[in-house]
């Protein structure tokens, strides 16, 4: 069998290498338009920032090493220009020799990836405007920052358009090189894949490190000023002079070759594949960023351009080519980013996606520390978990903080993949020692809080319900007087938790009560005390004032730096397992 793979990065090389391991006698040809294969494209921003000092560390394999180790015929600088499915040949253009030839195949694997979105704006073809997808893109940006590009002065200011994963990584690494950075993002927040209340602290952290943010606007044109500098004109009328622009506004699937060959596309513009990753054309498979995949939580097919799924898709294609019936499962879109000292990530669906899809959900917010609070070196994180109101099945999670974020995200991603519920999170036995976690891990705590909500042990109110939720209600702030004086919700009555039992004696038990504290624990204790004393309509603010201020994008005090005791939201959890609803 002869296998021809178009594209030699994540999915393509994963497919070729796996096919060789399964079939020693197959002829395997990989055609790659660029001059590098199997490189670490996720590491490109870090070489620009000189965090990864040696460029060669990003070059994982070469055509020569792949030939020697796996007997693969890998041809770089070779662009596939057409596919003839009836004759089962591709037209390949050798860019170095400027020659076109035909390559026959028994099975064709399309892994063309995705292309950075370059908006059709005036001046966008200026050579000082860059994208970051390939080694040559990285080389060009780094040369500009170094001052080695066309004898130009080193870059002192850059505009990054797009505040997603790549945009924020580039912004961080340009700051490592002492470049002033302005980030422009069309959404009203950075990291649009995460819910708003999770991103407010990240925005503050970016500003602390000298990154200027222009949110809720977009680039309108690129012009050259009288001083020769590049000018970025924004839709809100602001003009930002700069030396370099980095476009990081997303990617679109590279489907031109497939479409011209008659391959059916999906509703989102990617290549349509079945569970075996077969396209609509016989003997043609596809994998990687160009294909549409099933989502683990959301309906319909999705474009989810992530390295992990792309590599696994390549393996699935190879399995099927080599006689192993293998299907590719749904994708949950787990992603994570480091921005200076902070880490943010998510898995599954966010709240906006669930609402748009009409999927019922409940959610909880909590602010535990990364490890035991008495052991030095930890800070609070903001954890949000979404789950089904019927059976507690996990639907998504987002987390932002400093230490231990990746650990909790991976546990939650695994739990989501396994179909677990918030009740299961309660029971997870996770590694604990003071430098690494707490006896009640944040994941357990999320389970306690979610299970308490579904069992009826607590009723929550949320920032988006403000101020309607307060109509006709007594609003009670159970924090201390100093916290109350520093900031409180308008109309709130300050009743510190130690004084609550005495104060409530004169309250009407039929008047609705809305409680809050800093992160939700003290108000939970107040909730249990009031319900136990006969109050009939009590709710506590999910995540406390920390979540409220972040969700409402209030000033700097929204940072996750409360000194409230970090203990379980379910300290009184003694109910039998019989209280757990049937799945």
Itemize the secondary structure elements and their pairings.
Elements: E1 2-6, H1 10-22, E2 27-31, H2 44-48, H3 63-70, E3 73-75, E4 78-84, E5 89-94, E6 99-104, E7 107-110, E8 114-116, E9 129-130, H4 135-146, E10 157-161, H5 165-176, E11 180-185, H6 196-208, E12 211-215, E13 219-224, E14 230-234, E15 239-242, E16 244-247, E17 251-253, H7 256-260, E18 284-286, E19 293-294, E20 301-302, H8 307-321, E21 335-339, E22 342-348, H9 351-357, E23 362-366, E24 382-387, E25 394-401, H10 405-417, H11 422-427, H12 442-455, E26 460-461, E27 474-477, H13 481-486, E28 493-494, H14 500-503, E29 513-516, H15 521-532, E30 538-541, H16 544-551
Please give a handful of descriptors for the protein shown.
disordered C terminus; five-stranded parallel sheet; globular; 583 residues; FAD/NAD(P)-binding domain; alpha/beta; 16 helices; 26% helix
């Amino acid at each position: 069998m002869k296998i021809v793979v178009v594209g030699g990065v994540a999915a393509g090389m994963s497919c070729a290498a796996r096919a060789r391991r399964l079939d020693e006698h197959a002829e395997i040809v990989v055609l790659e338009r660029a001059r590098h294969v199997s490189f670490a494209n996720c590491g490109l921003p870090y070489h620009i920032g000189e965090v990864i000092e040696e460029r060669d560390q990003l070059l994982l394999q070469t055509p020569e090493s792949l030939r020697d180790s796996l007997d693969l015929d890998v041809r770089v600088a070779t662009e596939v220009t057409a596919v003839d499915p009836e004759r089962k040949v591709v037209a390949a253009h050798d860019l170095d020799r400027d020659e076109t030839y035909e390559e026959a195949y028994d099975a064709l694997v399309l892994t063309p990836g995705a292309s950075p979105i370059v908006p059709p704006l005036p001046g966008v073809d200026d050579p000082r405007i860059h994208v970051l997808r390939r080694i040559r893109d990285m080389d060009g940006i780094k040369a500009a920052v170094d001052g080695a590009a066309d004898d130009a002065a080193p870059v002192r200011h850059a505009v990054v358009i797009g505040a997603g994963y790549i945009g924020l990584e580039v912004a961080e690494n340009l700051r490592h090189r002492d470049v002033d950075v302005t980030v422009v993002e069309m959404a009203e927040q950075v990291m649009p894949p995460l819910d708003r209340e999770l991103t407010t602290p990240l925005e503050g952290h970016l500003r602390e490190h000298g990154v200027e943010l222009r949110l809720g606007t977009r680039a309108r044109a690129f012009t050259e000023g009288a001083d020769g500098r590049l000018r970025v004109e924004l839709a809100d009328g602001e003009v930002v002079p700069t030396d370099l622009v980095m476009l990081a506004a997303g990617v679109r699937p590279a489907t031109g070759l497939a479409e011209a060959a008659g391959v059916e596309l999906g509703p989102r513009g990617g290549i349509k594949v079945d569970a075996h990753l077969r396209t609509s054309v016989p003997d043609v498979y596809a994998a990687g960023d160009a294909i549409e995949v099933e989502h683990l939580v959301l309906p319909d097919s999705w474009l989810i351009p992530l390295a992990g799924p792309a590599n696994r898709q390549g393996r699935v294609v190879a399995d099927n080519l080599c006689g192993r019936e293998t299907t590719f499962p749904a994708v949950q879109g787990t992603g994570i980013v480091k921005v200076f000292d902070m880490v943010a990530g998510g898995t599954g669906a966010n709240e906006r996606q669930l609402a748009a899809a009409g999927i019922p959900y409940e959610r909880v917010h909590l602010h535990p520390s990364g490890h035991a609070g008495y052991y030095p070196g930890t800070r609070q994180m903001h954890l949000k978990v979404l789950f089904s109101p019927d059976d507690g099945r996990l639907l998504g999670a987002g987390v932002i903080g400093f230490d231990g974020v990746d650990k909790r995200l991976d546990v939650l991603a695994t739990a989501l993949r396994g179909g677990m519920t918030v009740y299961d999170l309660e029971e997870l036995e996770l590694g604990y020692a003071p430098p690494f976690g707490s006896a009640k891990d944040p994941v357990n705590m999320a389970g306690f809080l979610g299970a308490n909500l579904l069992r009826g042990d607590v009723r929550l109110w949320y920032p988006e319900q403000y101020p309607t939720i307060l109509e006709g209600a007594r609003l009670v702030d159970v924090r201390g007087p100093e916290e109350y004086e520093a900031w409180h919700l308008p109309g709130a009555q300050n009743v510190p938790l130690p004084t609550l039992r005495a104060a409530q004696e004169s309250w009407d038990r039929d008047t609705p009560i809305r409680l809050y504290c800093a992160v939700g624990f003290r108000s939970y204790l107040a909730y249990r005390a009031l319900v136990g004393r006969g109050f009939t309509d009590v709710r506590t603010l999910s995540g406390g004032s920390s979540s409220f201020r972040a969700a409402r994008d209030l000033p700097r005090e929204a940072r996750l730096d409360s000194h409230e005791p970090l203990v379980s939201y379910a300290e009184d959890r003694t109910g039998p397992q019989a209280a757990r609803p049937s799945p």
